[in-house]
Every structure is written in C-alpha cells, then in structure tokens.
Amino acid sequence: MKPRMRVMSWALVASLSFAGGLQSAQAGVIGAEQLSSAHAAAAPAPQGSARDALMRHFERADVQAALQERGVDMAQAHARVAALTDAEAQLLLDQIDSAPAGASDILGVLLFVFVLLLVTDILGLTQVFPFTRSTR
After folding, report:
1. How far is residue 39's CA from residue 32's CA, in Å, rounded to a whole number?
2. Quick one: pLDDT band at residue 42, thresholds 50, 70, 90?
3. What CA–CA distance (Å, rounded) separates 115 from 113?
4. What letter would DSSP give residue 46?
5. Which residue among 11, 58, 71, 72 is least crowded, i.e. fewest CB within 10 A of its CB?
C-alpha cells in the first residue's frame, strides 16, 4: 500500500470514528416550579380552542397566499377546519407546531452519499463514477 493512500485511509477512519462523538446530551436538575409550569403548558386545551387556533393560522396573509397558490379555496378550507373534531384539530395543531421550518434533510444525505462514493472510487474500492481515476 502506498504511504499516501495509507495516510488517507487512516485520516478517513479517524474522521469517521470521531463523527459519532459530536452529539452530546446535557442533563440538569429541574425544580418543582419548572415541572408544574411544564405540566400546565402541556395540559389539554379547552374545547374549541384548537379549532380557533387553526382558524387564526388561516387568517395569516402568508398562509392564505400559499393556499391560493396551490388552488385551495379559503371558504372551503374554513369549512373543513370547522368540520374537524376537537381531537383532529388538536392533532393538526400539534403537527403544525412541531413541523420543521425548512425542507427535509434529503439534500445532506445525497451529498454525503456522493462524497462517500467519490472517495471510495478514488481509493479504488468501487467503480461508480467514470471521471475518477483509481489510486491503485
């Protein structure tokens, strides 16, 4: 094995082995006041408030513009929200609140796979891309 390839291999192994240790968790003591306020915030909302909150979301100009771009009639959207049960309205509201602001991370995954295949092609372990030359 060539010395340069050996160094590259060890660098790749070291970087991949340290990649798992980047995420860390921190724990702390929670006081009784914080616990009770968290339970109060997580308590189920009174009847109809989830539906009202959904209606307030539909009143925003950016939401209305996005729905109209997709061909949704606002009167029909309001009628559908009014027809939801309380549990369905709460579930939809929870999904809206917990949804990520951007798109999914599929671009990062595709980029990682591309770089991984490119490196393995350069090292001569695979032959996926015709524009690379193997070091072997």
Report:
1. 11
2. low
3. 6
4. P
5. 71
Contacts 24+ apart (CB under 8 A), 127-133: none
Residues 6+ apart with CB under 8 A from 4: 135
Query: What pTM was computed for the model?
Result: 0.40
pLDDT for 110 beyond 70: yes
Kindly list the distances between the CA atom of residue 26 and the CA atoms of 17, 38, 51, in Å, as whole numbers in the listed order. 22, 19, 36
Digit-coded pLDDT (tens) for 66-93: 888 888 888 888 888 888 888 888 888 8
The residue ranges of every structural domain in the chain are 46-99, 101-136
Contact status, residue 47 vs residue 88, Cβ threshold 8 Å:
no
